[in-house]
Design goal:
disordered N terminus; alpha+beta; 8 helices
Length: 232
Amino acid sequence: MMQAQLAPSSSTNAWNPHARTQLRVALVAALTALLVLASLALPSGAHAYPPDMPSKSQAQSELNAITVRAEGPRTGYSRSLFPHWSNQGNNCNTREAVLKRDGSNVVVGADCYPDSGSWYSQFDGQTRTVPSQISIDHVVALAEAWDSGASSWTTSRRQAFANDLDGPQLIAVTTEVNSSKSDKDIAEWVPPLSSKRCAFAKMVIHTKYRWGLSMDPAEKSAAQTYLNYCSY
């Protein structure tokens, strides 16, 4: 005797519109979470900041600890007292290492100089595809470092500072914005893009703290102002 087929229950997920809507929402949420995690795992490249960027709370603690005093005289300063760009191995110097680190789809030749790639400049939001149009900025300018304590350093320490790849002291930016910044401190210059001023303050504070450099009162005030822009 044949058994009669039962119609699917309206309470099953396959036939319940409400349940199917909930399933779609859950799937979208899961996919969104996976995309966020994937973006956090991406290596440094275009639109990425230099390494060792501090949180707002860490930068605030460091800013509070930085010695505040008037800047010393610039007497005797020369960029040659901060030797750069140092050999980083594999035929790369520091400049070329930063170009590789901060660029997107960078292809280099045997001499490590980029043959192609693109670079997003955090300070002014411009993108360049010609490496000669990109400069490597010392976030804390060499002359500013000299005024803030580096004048008493050994040459080897100044060289390490000028080639610091471990912290947020070096960043690839357009030659135009690098020229406008020159050797100015944070009280005298900040990125044209207001959305980047929080990150810039963090980079300046963390660099000065890591290297034991001082700030004058105007710098300290400006650093605090722009750190206050940060939400995290």
